């Protein structure tokens, strides 16, 4: 391991196999998560995707939800020009879906509130929120990192998602059902040089899903590791591992909105994992309290009762 290449010498599939919860792993879309699968239909639904001007948001989530028949897809990012280009491109491919490009800085409460006001005016209410906007680290160890840059990761990865969730919860109230997909990362569970901001903010984002579901029975929330995908924030050392497709992450997100995936409410999943195997192991996952942020080791009460 080196600061410039912490995974030096490891095979190209290491990032997938080392984090595998299911025997079968995938790097591209497959039948169970294909948008053409009728079981994944999003007909009549309105979906909000942050970070939608490029990368996974544009090429993955927005495209796949439209392909699954969503009534409306709200494209949210800071660059209105890029959003308009995305909306035009996607409209040509999916003319039955209405694409609404909205410029927004997810770090700004005023900006986020304006998004939901425009969503209500255009569609009435949203059904799905994909918290996809994100930022990476400088790649420097904490000693030499810019604290402003470190905190910027928290502002976008965590605060931005918190603001979007806060407004969604008030938007849907206490009875309308909705789903939140928090785009987290396996890096949230990994301690690696130069990843302080990204790893810590993504870990907190993963835990956020449990708080959402605990306090809001009408809202499902799942944290998803989207896979290892080449994007404009991918560090150079990770490039050779970045062989997953945007469609993989998006297809998994589609599936997570279905009734079949209800047992994963509040939990963490990787897009690489087989959803068919997850369903087969649903009792094990729920009864064993697996795929939740937790700790290991015996606490005081357990030690006393084991004497």
UniProtKB/TrEMBL annotation:
One of its GO terms (molecular function) is oxidoreductase activity. Keywords: Oxidoreductase. The keyword Oxidoreductase applies. It comes from the Eukaryota. The keyword Oxidoreductase applies. Belongs to the short-chain dehydrogenases/reductases (SDR) family. This is Uncharacterized protein. It comes from Trichoderma asperellum (strain ATCC 204424 / CBS 433.97 / NBRC 101777).
